[in-house]
Amino acid sequence: MKKLLQQHRVSLFLIKALVLYLGFCTQAIAQQIVQGKVLDEKKEPLLGVNVLVKGTNIGTNTLADGSYKIEVANNSTLEFSFLGFATKQVSVNGQSILNIVLQSDNKVLDEVIVVSYGSQTKKKVLGSVQTVNNKDLKDVPGAEIGQKLQGRVAGLQINQANGRPGQGMAFRIRGAASLGSGNQPLVVVDGQPITGDLNLISSDDIESFSVLKDASASALYGSRAANGVILIVTKKAKSGSTNVSFNTYTGIQTVLDRGKPDLMNANEFATFQKGFYEDKIKYENWKYPKTGLAEIPDDYKNPENYGKGTDWYNALLRSAPITNYSLNISTGTEKVLSSNTLTYFKQEGVLVNTEMSRISFRSNNEYNPSKSLKVGFNIAPTYQMDYNTTAALDAVTGRPIIVGAEISSPLVPVVNPDGTYPKPISYGTYPLPNFYEQLNILNLKNNIFRMLGNAFVEIKILDGLKIKSSYNTDLGFTDSNVFRPSTYGFFGTPGPTIPSASHNSNNYVSWLIENMLTYNKKINSHTFDFLIGHSAQKYERNYRNINGSNFANDDIPWIVGAATTTGTTNKNAYAIESLFSRLNYDFKGKYIFSASMRRDGSSRFGLNKKYGIFPSASAGWIASEESFFPKSENFSLLKLKAGFGVTGNNNIGDYTQTTTLGSTNYVFSGALVPGLSINNLGNPDLTWETSKQLDLGLELSLFKSRISILYDYYDKRTDGMLYQISIPFSSGYSSIRYNVGEFKMWGHEFQINTKNLIGDLKWDTNLNLSFLDNKVLSLQDNTPIGGVNKYNDFNRTEVGRRIGELYGYVFDGVYMNQQEFDSQPKHATSAVGTARMKDINGDGKIDGNDRTFLGNSSPKFLFGITNTLSFRNFDFSMTMSGQTGNKIMNVNMQNSQNLDGIFNIEKDMMNRWRSPENPGNGKVPRTLSNTTELYRLGNSNWVFAGDYLTIRNISVGYTLNINSKYLLKSARIYLNANQVYVFTKYPGQNPEVNDTRDSQTTAGQDNGSYPVPRTISIGTNINF
Predict the structure, then answer these.
(1) Where do the segments described as Disordered lie (predicted)?
(2) pLDDT number for residue 373
(3) In the chain, how many H helices and how many E strands?
């Protein structure tokens, strides 16, 4: 806390000093009044023209007669802008009267959009593409790029499943596109498809994002584009200017009480346990092992002696700082462009003793020695250090530590008065360690390095004809070291245990070589744009692992101190080679056509199935350009478009198509000797998973582009789905990867942008709406996937239904008395007072065949809205997003409603059945031994609506403008709140946790997570 206060004092001092300095600079500049009128080409006055001092937020608007008046520095430049007209800049140079004529312009429609292997004007884009500029996201704090994009793009679902520092987020474009071969979109950075972690790219390096949603937009990426594509453009220098910018923010992260589990305090827990053992004595003739008598254990005899006790959930949490510094220097001349960004980011976790820090650098350089030659070199190294962030997961179960901590006994203190760590009390078969001790004594370090590199040469052969060759590399390594002392403990094994240590490292390198020939030509009213290219990529990863065990003590925390060491190494690789081409054509700017084709060869498929062809075609009609279309400033664009394309998915891992060998031991002549055996059954007929997608769209621009509407309808069919299916054990194997079936997805998307106010007070709104659904059309032999193991298999995918629907028993209350028990279907473990489930198949008994579908794990409706307001130097923005139509199964209730007396549990469990005379609330069964299993299996009692509305971000800023020959040009101070609040009826911690897993066949399960914090930060953007 002391460190935190010191950071805030330093930040406040720097901000105060900055304000004083900026105020001094502002006073030092000579001011004058400039006035005049703004007219159109017909000499008619224009009302509401923005008159802005360039590089600042100082401005005004013209009145009904076109007049304006503004006080500015005498060396300022005024910028006149108005919807539907070309922006004009005029230097003041001491003039007091400036009359301006603005020319008509279609600038909004001519905005350049980044698309696959190139760019197009927005007006001529036929695919479903949406672009977000990073300047609109600059205030959002955090390490994850996804946090900045949440709620901004129609059809782009970004879920923050947990708040672990440096943890990535789940991206999905138009829902799940595959059963078991991944649903994450392809990410392309400056034309380079990346293979490493997206979150190792600093958001301070990014200029814009383009989301390619349909097949006609993404088909040029072929076998990797089935899940859509996200194109990232990083910051480049602009010719004729030198700019230096420094951005920083510091903030505090806190976990809200909403969603906190409502578990028993010490008094309630002791009261429950006293009753628990009273019932065991009454119904089971139980004896206290310590005395051999039928009596209550000592700890629970007098519940009134306990107060609230320990809240283990809060004990593991803290308020944690987050800090970011970023410096960008860019310079551009006629021949040289160079942009360099250095960023340092540090985030301490809200779980004690967890943190991560990252330093990254990006240098983008371009040299134009002549009009026909362009060369470039870009490099972006990143180094990240994680401390105990993965320790937030239990090493045995893989479940979050906080899930175990919250069910620990509230009777036990976090730390004893003498500073030692107590172990939680447990009389059950599953004792728990002290999780606070775990986090504080563990020393788990991950060091991660990643570098993106790119070099290219572009030669202009003839007018409109260019050839470009590029070499790209993506390389990285991860090094992890951990020592677990004897006091560490695990779920079910609280310690002391034998110390252990491990060292894991892996490194990868991916190189990509691409050669492209482009030709652009306009002949009268015909415009052609042709591209042909070749691409070759190879990826290789090496793994190394060393484990140490049987340490004599905790004194030597390195593997060298282990009596026993074991190690493994492994390697995997794949390669892709491709040919691709595209033709864009338009006639008179009204009729637009585009066609593309890519042929991919992948080493991941069998010899006869290595190659796939992925075509696309789209057409558009800009009806507003027709002579018969009414000419009106209120209806500036009407575009109709349609596209169809095929994309693929090769995300099945390496060597799946090949039968592989592994080491094993055999007994030969009475001795154990090493040998080899088949460990993976290959499938030489394995082929591409392909998605065929139809997209129909409409674009409108109304009222001088103050309202723009984009609508898309899509219908996507995925067949040859890649999935690991079970096969008869008589084969000697349990499963094989197979092309198993087909499913479809369809939906409607709306993107609506409005400029509500355009005067001194400006107000813009961005609204996006997405309606989506899916259906399984066929599976291998129509055999359902999942829902087999009643203990942990809570999803099922079945023909005619949605993918990965929740699956389990339907809870139907409690057998309240003997008469009810005798007249109702029963489970083998049922008794009076136990849980009753519905007899779904009507066979008069309760068993695994009565499990049924409990709800859809995928949302049916996504939405996001951003409102941005500005008034002179002040600005304000707020982003909200959410979803409806999905269900979540809170699997944590398997522990928090466990009636076996081994965990702390929900308060409502006090209302359990104890006797026919004391039946409780009819919803909680009794605690009789060997009868509680059914209540701990997945059932409708755990299923809740997953609807939510989240206030993602609120930002308020003020810009101090200098705009002078002095050192500073401008500076902005802002206050930001991120993950402000979640409105939901879901009782769990995080309604977004349902998409933790990449496979849709296991979605909708909440197994607990590292809490997602609210972040309050203050920052500044300074331009020199």
Answers:
(1) 991-1012
(2) 94
(3) 9, 51
